[in-house]
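Weekly structure sync, notes
Attendees: PL (lead), two postdocs, one rotation student
Agenda item 3: pending single-chain targets
PL asked that the sequence for the first pending target be pasted directly into the notes so everyone works from the same version. It is reproduced below exactly as submitted, 199 residues in total.
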Amino acid sequence: MSTPAHNANSPLTPAAQRILDTAAELFYTRGIHAVGVDTIAAESGVTKRTLYDRFGSKDGLLLTYLQQRDGRWRTLIEARLADRTDPVERVLTPFDVMPEWLPDNSRGCSFINAFAELPDPDHPGRQVIVAEKTWLYELFDQLLAEAGIADPATTAVQLLSLHEGAIISYSITELHTAAAAVRTAAEMLVKAAVGHESG
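Predicted structure, written out during the meeting:
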């Protein structure tokens, strides 16, 4: 497997950003395996050589796509957390950002979609996916512990399952009330856990 040419911490050139934006749209709407570098290059208005110069390979481009989405999601949550002090509200932050995230994700979670297409556990893209979901679980666990819950791990699994289920419900069944409904369920769950600890 080729090593990606692009360093995720360095800024992209305008051409590279155009390639990445095009690939992101194609990977998400058509699927990773269904889209080749010829299509990405043509729709980006660049040569395949430019694509390879910027990203090293299709896998390198895929890795950058997943890293960028992961970064945007984490930044969105962390920015909202920075404005909150109430322990329960902090735990619920990932649910509160869902209404602004979901409208641009009509085909469900890009990480789950990519996970289904990357069976090799050693694929760098799959490792990004696992890290993203693990990060959200660990965030719930940390915030629940800060809220004073003695067994945050169990509730963290429940919250993660509610969160991921809302994304699936929104995209597959077009239940646009999913985010609000699941947020209400999560709040009841967290408040019950906090009440149990303080009772």
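Discussion points:
- The mean pLDDT is 90.
- DSSP finds eleven helices and no strands in the chain.
Action: rotation student to compare against the earlier draft before next sync.
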